Write a sequence for this structure.
């Protein structure tokens, strides 16, 4: 049999996506150098399914229907280049190679050029949703050659998550557009996770909610406008008890947070583009702060937080209400920052992104799926060149009506000495964006004072220099 699709790398993601593809009626062959993994995929698929696993690159390539379509799900970086190099001599013009990993977008651009020169279409496609998503419906973010995408479209639309019947996959744009969109997805993911962590801290140490109360707060919130995958799993996580001690498992988990780099890339590239994404930046740096464990233990002793004793006059119900509004505000501010970065990136790299499509395919399957993406999509559908989500009247009015609550929450955190950098950044982004005249005129004057860098004036055109002293 000639298989319709090939998968290279049968780790968790590759194997599950393969089984998903097979469930949707497509024949699929997988390649992995580990014989156990190659065999496991056939066993898992069960008899009668058109699923094959092999350790032979020759058998793999020869068993694929031409023009071939194959996906790589191997760790980002050198492994991707190594796999491409090993398969390239076996491939032919017209074949399509899809990289489904979290590859760094400049690597994708390089590979597109290298492979197009040989007549092979290369696709960077971000895939989100983890193990379950891969198995039952991920969100997929493809970019590259549009005609090649059209050939793959039936497979991708079949396996993707669906929201109201609409598949969470669509062609996003040229070159590395798919990897770029997935990178920013992960930046937003980091920021929302950080906002949840700050909320948890404030409710626990600040207001004194018990573990049981905390869990029900998140469960209740998932029935409101905060409805989202990350709020939902937080409710489930807080419920989980350690088998041995019976304590909530989270209380036994070290606070040192790890990362694989996608959030950092989002911030780094935002700086290159001069796109402000402060909530994402804060999320990246709080993971870095978490790694300074020994120093923090020492500092906690030397610089004790007596402010925690400060009693804040709060009615719990009222506080939870404010907290929910504050979370919604900060979450929307975070999406606004990420979307604005995507807009700038699309212009800088000629991706041709349609932000309504990005919002559409993020509504299901991915880690940042959230009810609010329906409104975000509507905003861009109404005006696809919207400079910033905050300028949409519905979203803008919604944030205006919640801003006092986020201010109250941040004040409480400050009074208690509890760090809430992502909330503060989300609020400051809003406050700065809607400020007509920022104090940066002072910075311009200072630059001119010490470096003769010149400044522009509000009343005349041109660049001016002053002898200040
Ligand atoms: C997803 C996730 C996925 C992965 C992250 C984790 O969309 O399914 O984002 O890609 O879990 O890369 O990133 P860190 O290890 O950096 O937290």
């Amino acid at each position: 049999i000639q298989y319709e699709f090939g998968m290279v790398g049968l780790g968790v993601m590759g194997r599950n996506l393969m089984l998903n593809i097979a469930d949707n009626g497509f024949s699929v062959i997988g390649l992995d150098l580990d014989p156990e993994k190659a065999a496991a995929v056939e066993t898992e698929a069960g008899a009668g399914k058109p699923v094959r696993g092999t350790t032979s690159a020759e058998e793999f390539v020869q068993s694929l229907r031409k023009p071939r379509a194959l996906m790589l799900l191997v760790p980002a970086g050198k492994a991707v280049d190594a796999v491409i190099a090993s398969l390239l001599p076996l491939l032919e013009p017209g074949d399509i190679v899809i990289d489904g990993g979290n590859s760094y977008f400049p690597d994708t651009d390089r590979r597109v050029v290298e492979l197009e020169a040989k007549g092979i279409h290369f696709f960077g496609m971000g895939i989100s949703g983890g193990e379950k998503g891969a198995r039952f419906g991920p969100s997929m973010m493809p970019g590259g050659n549009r005609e090649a995408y059209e050939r793959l479209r039936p497979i991708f639309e079949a396996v993707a998550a669906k929201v109201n019947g609409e598949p969470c996959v669509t062609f996003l744009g040229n070159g590395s557009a798919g990897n770029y969109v997935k990178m920013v997805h992960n930046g937003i993911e980091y920021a929302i996770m950080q906002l949840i962590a700050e909320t948890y801290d404030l409710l626990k140490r600040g207001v004194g909610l018990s573990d049981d109360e905390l869990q029900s707060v998140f469960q209740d919130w998932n029935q409101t406008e905060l409805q989202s995958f990350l709020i939902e799993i937080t409710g489930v996580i807080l419920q989980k008890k350690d088998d041995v001690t019976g304590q909530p498992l989270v209380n036994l988990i070290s606070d040192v947070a790890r990362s694989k780099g996608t959030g950092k890339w989002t911030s780094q590239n935002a700086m290159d583009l001069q796109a402000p994404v402060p909530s994402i930046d804060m999320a990246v740096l709080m993971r870095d702060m978490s790694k300074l464990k020994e120093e923090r233990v020492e500092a906690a002793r030397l610089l004790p937080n007596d402010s925690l004793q400060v009693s804040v006059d709060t009615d719990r119900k009222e506080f939870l209400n404010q907290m929910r509004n504050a979370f919604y505000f900060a979450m929307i501010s975070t999406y606004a920052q990420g979307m604005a970065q995507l807009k700038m990136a699309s212009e800088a790299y000629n991706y041709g992104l349609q932000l309504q499509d990005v919002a559409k395919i993020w509504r299901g399957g991915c880690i940042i799926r959230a009810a609010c993406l329906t409104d975000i999509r509507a905003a861009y559908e109404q005006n696809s060149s919207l400079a910033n989500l905050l300028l949409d009247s519905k979203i803008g009015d919604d944030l205006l009506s919640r801003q006092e609550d986020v201010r109250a929450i941040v004040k409480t955190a400050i009074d208690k000495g509890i760090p809430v950098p992502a909330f503060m950044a989300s609020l400051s982004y809003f406050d700065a964006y809607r400020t007509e005249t920022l104090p940066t005129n002072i910075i311009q004057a200072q630059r001119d004072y010490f470096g003769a860098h010149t400044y522009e004036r509000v009343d005349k055109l041109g660049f001016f220099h002053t002898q200040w002293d």
The longest helix spans residues 316-349. The mean pLDDT is 97. The chain has three domains: 5-175, 182-433, 438-469. The pocket of 6-phosphogluconic acid is lined by residues 102, 128-130, 186, 189, 259-260, 262-263, 366-367 (CB under 6 Å).
